[in-house]
Amino acid sequence: MAASPLRPHPPANPAAAVRTMQTRSIDTATSAYAYPLLIKQLLLTPLAHSPEREICYTHLSRYSYRTLRERIGRLAKGLAGLGLDAGQTVAVMDWDSHRYLECYFAIPMMGAVIQMVNVKLSPEQILYTLNHARADALLVNAEFLPILDGIADRLETVCTFVLISDSPTPALPARFAADYEALLAAAGQDFDFPDFDENTRATTFYTTGTTGLPKGVHFSHRQLVLHTLAVAAALGGAACQGRLHRDDVYMPITPMFHVHAWGLPYVATLMGLKQVYPGAYHPERLLRLIEREAVTFSHCVPTILHMLLNHPLVNEIDLTRWKVIIGGSALPQAMALAARKKGIDVFTGYGMSE
């Protein structure tokens, strides 16, 4: 009987046919461009579709994504001029700022590792994390100089210090090689960020959720890019409640030294959102920024939300467009009801630092 064109005879050697299909599949895959999942790729979309969207730091700084990319290049070139290179670790001690966002990109894009120093640790714990991470350089906000003064003589590997300051003309302490803004101003912007293995370590931070000394955690470029895509898809796929979209205005209220601020600065950058960085967390400042910059999306722990809900200024500000992810600990029912009463779209998330 002739074989039906709709039901052809099975191959004489099924195993050989499977091997042939696998070979064809492998040949097709290897002929494609092996596009590495690197943090620098997260900048491509916002530069294409929203290059003039703003990045704000309190009332002190306001610039576009185009300028953000320029400053990232200048920071990398400045750090390279100080002798820092791929594979080295650059630690950062700062409040939430546009400078921290620049470090989130420039340092790992060089092939170096950014260590986000938890400034809420004790000086002895900060010393331990810097020595354990074998940090080569330290970018430190002037507010934390008293901490540095107490531990500097016991730093084992840090050789280069850069001062971060909101002052336009800061006094440079003796051990410091440069001031952050002066470093950028003196550097060219055309830094050639190379491709490299996407499994290269990009970030290091220390978690204190367990007993004993702080525990180091690190993430690769691949992990961070995949996390960014996953969070963007999860939040962007929501029909309404908790949805993050391109017209949102983002302000972190989870410190940038804590688990990459839950990864949201990378997500906000990929999506090209207007971003607002508040510096240190003062309740009046946070509420004023929400009002002035029309912030619509944030994330924080319950204690921060409690602080804001109980500040007198909260009764003068419209919070009905504000969406807030709560994490770090359980959201009490009473707090959730109080937030909902103010019109806040509050919801919870959970994840481990590791």
Q: Please, could you describe this protein's structure?
A:
The structure is a single chain. The chain is α/β, with parallel strands linked by helices. The protein has 13 helices and 14 strands. The protein has helices at 14-31, 44-49, 65-81, 98-109, 123-132, 145-151, 180-186, 221-236, 259-262, 264-271, 283-292, 302-309, 333-341; strands spanning 54-57, 61-64, 89-93, 113-116, 137-141, 160-164, 178-179, 201-207, 215-220, 249-250, 274-277, 297-300, 323-326, 345-348. It has a seven-stranded mixed beta sheet with strand order 7-6-5-3-4-8-9, sandwiched between helices. Strands 2-1-11-10 form a four-stranded mixed beta sheet. It has a three-stranded parallel beta sheet with strand order 12-13-14. Helix 3 crosses helix 4 (98-109), helix 3 (65-81) crosses helix 7 (180-186) and helix 8 packs across helix 10 (264-271). The longest helix has 18 residues, at 14-31. It is globular and about 55 Å long. It starts with 13 loop residues before the first helix and ends in a 6-residue tail after the last strand. The model is unreliable at 1-9 (pLDDT under 50).
